[in-house]
Amino acid sequence: xxKVSRVIEAKSVTNVYYGWSDxxxxxxxxxxxxxxMDEASLRRLANVLNDKIEEQDKEAAERAAxxxxxxxxxxxx
Length: 77
What we know:
Blueprint: E1 13-18, E2 23-28, E3 31-36, H1 39-76
Antiparallel strand pairs: 1-2, 2-3
């Protein structure tokens, strides 16, 4: 097995596809990334992404609640 370590800055993912050949394809600005991964790896990736999305949603809800509380406090003054 060959290990590759490379940082790729891929901005603006425009399309995501996971095909029958166990390959994750990310279409990005300027090209495409193809990543071969088995089902277990795909599930680990999905769990990490879902956790991150949940965290971001929670932070956004907290910011919205704080903003709403500030607006209410301003209206009460």
